[in-house]
Structures are given as C-alpha cells and as structure tokens.
C-alpha cells in the first residue's frame, strides 16, 4: 500500500520507443484534424501542431507515430511542450484513439500560467478506452483528481502501463492500493514543484522494483515510514537520505543494496532501522548516528560492514535490540551492566 500526496518520487527504467511509419487511415486523420482544431495553443511557441499539414499523411506529422504494418494505426501522440491551454472538451478525439501506445501531453509547468485542463473529458474518461497505453506523460497538465480517482482510472483502464509521468498534475493522495495491479509499471514520476513533499509512508516491499534508489528520495522531507523489504533495488543508498528528518521507521532488509550506509544523524526520530541481508560495506562512523536517542531496534546483520564494532550504539538508552552478526566488524563488544549477549558471532 502506498500513501502519498504529491512528492517527488522517481523510479527508473528503460523506455521503449516505437518509431515507425505507416499510412494514415482516414478516420484517424479526421480525428487528429478535429483534435488540432479543438486545441488552444500558442502558435508562436508551437513546433508540432503548427506544422501539421492536413494535406499530407498524418503519420508524417510531427508528434504523431504510426505502427508499420497494414493500414497503419496512430500509436503515439506526443504534443509535449506545445503550450496548450484550456480543455480538450470540444473533442474527445484522443480518447477514441484506442490503439495509442504512447501519449505525451506534458508541458513545462509555470505557476499561474494556464495549462491544459482535464475536465470534459476528465482524467478517467480520457483514459477509459486507451487500454494499449504503455507510456503516459501528462506532466504539467491540470488533471486535478484525488488518489482514489486517478489510481483507479489507471489500474482499471491501463493494464499494460510501463511508464507513468504525472508531475505537477494537481493530483492528491493517498495513492490507492489498486495501483499495485499495474504489474508492468517500471517508471513513476509524481512530483510537484512545492518544496514540501508530503509523502509520509513509502512501502514497496516484495515488489520487483529494481535499479538504483533515486536521490530524489531525499526530497521527501515528511517521510516517516519507509519499507523496501525484498525489493530488487541495487547500488548504493542515496546520501540524500540524510535529509529525511522525520524518519521513524526504516526497513530496507533482504534487498541487494551495496556500499556504505548513509549518515542518519539528522533523523532524530528514528526508532527502527533494519538494513540486514544486503551487501552493505564500509564502517559505521559514530558521527553518522549521533543523537539518535529514540532508537529501539537496529539490525545490520548479514552484510559486509567492517571497522570497529559501533559500540556507541550500546550507549543509547532506548535501544532494545541490536543485531550486528555476519559482518566483518573488529573489536570487542562493550561491557554494559544488565545487557546480555547470546551466541557468537550473532549477539542480541
Ligand atoms: C519548450 O518550449 C519553450 C518555448 O515555448 C522552449 O524555450 C523550450 O526549449 C522547450 N523545451 C523543450 C524541452 O523542448
Ligand atoms: C502539404 O502536403 C502536401 C501533400 O504532401 C504538399 O503538396 C504540400 O506542399 C505540403 N504543404 C506544405 C506547406 O508543406
Ligand atoms: C515527446 O517529444 C519531446 C520533444 O518535443 C521529446 O523530448 C520526448 O521525449 C517525447 N516523448 C516521448 C514519450 O517520446
Ligand atoms: C469508450 O468506448 C465505448 C465503447 O466503444 C464508448 O461507448 C465510449 O464512448 C468510449 N469512451 C470515450 C471516452 O470515448
Ligand atoms: C513548508 O513547510 C514549512 C514548515 O512546515 C512551512 O513553514 C512552509 O511555508 C512550507 N512551504 C510551502 C511552500 O508550503
Ligand atoms: C517478480 O518477478 C518474478 C520473476 O519474474 C515473478 O515470479 C514474481 O511474481 C514477480 N513479483 C511481483 C510481485 O510481481
Ligand atoms: C544493478 O542491477 C543491474 C541489472 O540487474 C545491473 O546492470 C547493474 O550493474 C547493477 N548495479 C550495481 C551497482 O550492482
């Protein structure tokens, strides 16, 4: 389950660009002409719509992609950065392009500057029949919908979606669990240009999300609980995690993260840290964990951490469990009255 309202969250991946040409069928041609005529756009800034030549094959128009075989279908529509304003209410030309694989209406978001607005059709209606869509980019388009509406529209209409980019779309959270139905989803962008991202809980456990955890996680200043258990992420943990001041619960266990553990000294509210069963290495400098006076649970077991045993942890009064086993720490566990150690090399 994910809960969110408009943070910057970017999860990466490959994009399949389908480029081919075909012959534009007349119904597709007239739908595009209809769309063109219904859109309000700034002629002086347009580089695509302004060049559409209605006498030519629509598959050759800038921003239009057709598939190669047979009579040709319009499978891609890219009107990004076309300074479109107003609505697309006079035409539902886009929602009738059932073969669309790519739809990009993204535009540069400038606060106060009118942008394309999804009202009639709204977000859900626009996408209703676009069941083939693999890539949807509506950045900067005013889609204004709550978590329930936009997530369910995506999950019921777009089963093949791989890439979703909806930054600055005036969407609000929480993210509805139905989004988990989108099994092919590999890239999600849901940012906004407000400084204060309000995502509080990020749970991506037991998913196949892979690649590098993006630096932008550090912009989620309200993040309090993050669980990435048994994901396919690899590479280093972003240093930007040091900015997560509100973090309370952090479980990144059973993944394939490598490299050092970033400084968490500013996350003073941290109570629970689990980095166990990764491939983390390096030392744990005391300065990285200074002042974490709420820590109750620390599990760093089954990694390749080295340097001296982080004995400063044992001095944190709130600490109840500490697991450091199966690492390459050196030195002795400090002798603390009332603390019992079980077994070796594991101890608790
Ligand atoms: C978008 O359009 C503006 C002009 O309206 C132009 O300055 C800018 O370079 C364009 N950006 C992209 C990515 O094409
Ligand atoms: C538009 O396309 C037609 C048919 O291909 C062509 O004859 C004509 O020159 C084109 N017009 C412009 C302005 O490019
Ligand atoms: C749409 O066109 C722009 C150039 O105007 C390009 O940067 C962008 O990658 C294209 N989008 C897709 C999904 O191919
Ligand atoms: C989607 O397709 C159905 C059945 O063909 C049609 O009745 C409906 O109007 C379409 N919706 C849109 C928004 O075009
Ligand atoms: C961000 O949050 C801080 C503290 O909660 C608040 O003072 C500030 O006005 C917020 N900024 C924006 C752009 O909402
Ligand atoms: C992850 O991928 C594996 C192998 O491709 C597949 O068996 C598994 O069902 C996937 N898990 C999820 C949660 O999609
Ligand atoms: C992460 O995994 C990908 C794909 O499995 C691989 O290409 C890449 O080299 C890995 N990166 C690291 C730092 O291990």
From TrEMBL:
* Short name of any one Pfam family annotated for the protein: LRRNT_2
Q: Which UniProt keywords apply?
A: Glycoprotein, Leucine-rich repeat, Membrane, Receptor, Repeat, Signal, Transmembrane, Transmembrane helix
Q: Does the keyword Membrane apply?
A: yes
- TM segments? none
Q: Which residues form the Leucine-rich repeat-containing N-terminal plant-type domain?
A: 26-67
Places the protein is found: Membrane
Q: Which GO terms describe its cellular component?
A: membrane
Tell me what topology the record assigns in the membrane: Single-pass type I membrane protein
Its signal peptide is 1-20
- Superkingdom of source: Eukaryota
Return the Gene3D superfamilies for the record.
Ribonuclease Inhibitor (3.80.10.10)
> What is the name listed in the Swiss-Prot or TrEMBL entry for this protein?
Leucine-rich repeat-containing N-terminal plant-type domain-containing protein
**Provenance organism:** Hevea brasiliensis (Para rubber tree)
The organism that produces this protein has a lineage beginning with:
Eukaryota, Viridiplantae, Streptophyta, Embryophyta, Tracheophyta
């Amino acid at each position: 389950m994910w809960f969110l309202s408009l943070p910057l969250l970017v999860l990466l991946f490959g994009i399949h660009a389908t480029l081919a040409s075909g012959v534009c069928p007349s119904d597709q041609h007239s739908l595009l002409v209809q769309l063109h005529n219904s859109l309000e756009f700034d002629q002086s800034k347009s580089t695509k719509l302004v060049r559409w030549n209605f006498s030519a094959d629509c598959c050759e128009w800038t921003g239009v992609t057709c598939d190669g075989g047979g009579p040709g279908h319009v499978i891609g529509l890219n009107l990004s950065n076309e300074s479109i304003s107003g609505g697309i209410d006079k035409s539902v030309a886009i929602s009738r392009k059932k073969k669309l694989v790519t739809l990009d209406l993204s535009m540069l978001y400038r606060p106060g500057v009118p942008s394309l607005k999804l009202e009639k059709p709204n977000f859900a209606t626009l996408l209703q029949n676009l069941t083939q869509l693999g890539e949807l980019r509506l950045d900067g388009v005013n889609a204004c919908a709550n978590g329930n509406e936009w997530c369910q529209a995506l999950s019921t209409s777009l089963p093949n979606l791989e890439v979703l980019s909806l930054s600055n779309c005036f969407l609000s959270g929480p993210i509805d669990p139905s989004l988990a139905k989108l099994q092919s989803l590999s890239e999600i962008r849901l940012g906004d240009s407000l400084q204060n991202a309000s995502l509080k809980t990020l749970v991506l456990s037991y998913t196949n999300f892979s690649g590098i955890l993006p630096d932008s996680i550090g912009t989620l200043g309200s993040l309090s609980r993050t669980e990435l258990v048994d994901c396919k992420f690899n590479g280093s943990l972003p240093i930007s995690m040091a900015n997560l001041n509100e973090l309370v619960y952090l479980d990144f266990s059973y993944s394939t993260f490598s490299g050092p553990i970033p400084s968490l000294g500013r996350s003073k509210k941290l109570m629970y840290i689990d980095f166990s069963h990764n491939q983390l290495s390096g030392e744990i400098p005391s300065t990285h964990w200074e002042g974490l006076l709420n820590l109750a649970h620390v599990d760093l077991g089954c990694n390749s951490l080295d340097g001296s045993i982080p004995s400063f942890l044992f001095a944190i009064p709130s600490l109840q469990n500490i697991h450091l086993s199966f690492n390459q720490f050196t030195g002795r566990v400090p002798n603390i009255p009332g603390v019992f150690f079980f077994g070796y090399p594991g101890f608790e």
